[in-house]
Amino acid sequence: MARINDHFLKLKAGYLFPEIGRRVSAYTEANSEKAAKLIRCGIGDVTEPLPQAVRDAMKAAVDAQGHRETFKGYGPEQGYAFLRETVAKEAYADLGITADEIFISDGSKCDTGNMLDIFGPGNKIAITDPVYPVYVDTNVMIGNTGEADENGAYEGLVYLPCNKENQFVPAIPEEKVDLIYLCYPNNPTGASATRAQLEAWVAYARKNKAIILYDAAYEAFVQDPEVPRSIFEIEGAHDCAVEFRSFSKNGGFTGIRCGYVVIPKGLVGYDAQGGEVSIHSLWSRRTSTKFNGASYPVQKGAEAIFSPEGKAQVAALIEHYMGNAKLLRQACKDLGLAVFGGVNAPYVWVECPEGIDSWGMFDKMLEEAQVVITPGSGFGAAGEGYFRISAFNSRENVEEVCRRLKALL
Ligand code: MLT
Q: Which of 65, 114, 188, 369 has its CA 20 to 30 A from that of 133?
């Protein structure tokens, strides 16, 4: 008898985005004419083509695979030195991070989930609410939670409410926790955290020997020079934080797949006897065992993001998406809706019109405006009453979404 992992049975029916996909497909099947007008602002998937510098580098890398002299088989599991060194120099200059503290991967979704492999049972885990659902579901899968209640909140997790009162940055908990997921600029609320707020989190983590799992997948969208882009800008973070970054949203790699994890060598966790164990060594061991590295052409493409041409092309992409965010923010504001985010992040977080809940707004936008958004409640109970509009789209589509919003509300 093949026993399954019973923890999977605690998961709510569908992961949010496949569930949205299912509802959109059902609508499309039943309304083929209207569905032809559908504009997708749900999942934060990029729409603009890969930067030229990336494509050129990837093509050259593929060609190199066609010659015995330059052909490459298995690469280093932790990533090629050329990319690790480039990331250290370009993304972490002056932040005290070395190339061997950077682990190249196939993306942050996998990394944030896989990270749980190296942490044992019994950790108290804090997550923000609303939150990127992957953090919650991967903790459920591994057995770090009990069952979900009627609001979808899992027993055993410490939820940190994020709301307009705290500008979607959670207060430091009264209780002691061991692992803390923070994501800034934030998905889904589009909020950013100030230096002082991150300093408070780092101080808390150090005091409690906790580790902050800091998801910085959206750092490239920060416009305000005062807003930290990395947790390692905060003094003391090297002793208490892991950072996740991705090429998905800046370089348009959602389909290409490449990201990285930064783990300072001095970061420690504790074994059953309370002895210190290097997190870097455990992650390195895990990576060698379960991963064979991101592909060579993909890593070459990622390296090109940091070339002068690549930087200019990425800057243009960011400007494009942030221009979209500005238009979406303004359109919602003009309708008298309370609007958050969209200033240092590509997500606009909007309070639903009175009397409509998150899924109600999702249905209304789908059925009456043929626009796909993401219901705030899909990110957690505290997201109820909000919806998220992704700014990842063409300008033409965003302008049309703004027109349809105005006609709808
Ligand atoms: C989102 O829409 O929240 C993101 O695209 C999901 C992801 O990056 O996996």
A: 369
